[in-house]
Amino acid sequence: MEMARRVLSSTPLIDGHNDLPWAIRQSEAAPHDVEAAVHDLRGTTPFHTDIARLRAGMVGAQFWSVYIPFSATEEGAAMVQLEQIDIAHQIIERYPDVFELALDVSDIQRIYGQGRIASLLGMEGGHAIENSLGALRGFFELGVRYMTLTHNGTLDWADAANGEPTHGGLTRFGQEVVREMNRMGMLVDLSHTSPATMNDALDVSEAPVIWSHASARGVRDHPRNVPDQVLRRLSDNGGVVMVTFVPSFVSARDEATLADVADHIDHIAAIAGIEHVGIGSDFDGISSTPVGLEDVSTYPALFAELSRRGWTEEDLRLLAGENVLRVMGEAEAVARRLQRERPPSTATIEGLDGPVSQDHE
């Protein structure tokens, strides 16, 4: 534990996925109302997350998920997405002494250096862009720094892990989405995608990709986890799998544990390399948690477990945040180059893929 605290006191722990904005939207007490739903993040909340527990967990930077469900397409996905971004901004702006919106690596380093928690936004599901690259760019301008290509349903342009395999991965428009994300500097998140989509994205992407919350299929055979074949490609791409704490993803048993999560981290480090693993809890997006990882205060216990397994301080720093900072830095460099080489894409799904079918899930 001493080593864990030493590492986390000098390297930002970057968690790839926390669903507090959606938990607030769904709050029984006060849906959509940041002030009423949490009352005060400085106190104890009914969620996995509050400021005191974030501090106890030594969190240095957090990707706040601005998730919207696949069903939001029925009411206007872009509108619901804007509402979720608004909730996340309200959380960040309400506690300026604790949080600040971060847009790039330099922001994370500056905010962390000031003793605050760098707050980034991640969209969960490409259905939010409604097949529009212009909408994608608009969300980037609002601060979104990754997009999970799919959620739990296959899109017009990408197959999901839990959706009907319609396209064999990415369509031509799906490939253009990845290219445009590269050009902007938005991280391509392959959580929730099918292995074919993962492989297609790795073929197309000029920047490192991420999985903001996924685990290893070689440890737990679950469709939401990353196959070893894909993990072996990460040394070439440079990407990072941010290991999630979702109990059913990390263990086939009724009760998952902290040790199970550590097993996934060990496996990804062994197959992909220690430079390609990170942390993506999914707190407040899950109803139950592994024993020992009950809320955002518990990260040091996970790092202490890995230390007991032989992980060095240098290894733990890579896991905590240095791998993700490298990925972001490389994605920013790719974006600077691509912006010199080509303008924003004006491609449409109809122009690349033909008429859009309404038959898929």
Secondary structure layout plus pairing:
Layout: H1 2-8, E1 13-18, H2 20-25, H3 34-38, H4 51-56, E2 59-65, H5 77-94, E3 99-101, H6 105-113, E4 117-124, H7 133-141, E5 144-148, H8 172-184, E6 187-189, H9 195-204, E7 210-214, H10 228-231, H11 234-237, E8 240-243, H12 247-250, H13 258-271, E9 277-279, H14 299-308, H15 313-341, H16 349-353
Helix pairs in contact: 1-14, 1-15, 7-8, 8-15, 13-14
Q: Can you walk through the features of this model?
A:
It is a single chain. The protein is an alpha/beta fold and 361 residues long. The chain has one domain: TIM Barrel (Alpha-Beta Barrel). The protein contains 16 helices and nine strands. Strands 1, 2, 3, 4, 5 and 6 form a six-stranded parallel β-sheet that branches. Strands 7-8-9 form a three-stranded parallel β-sheet. Helix 7 packs parallel to helix 8.
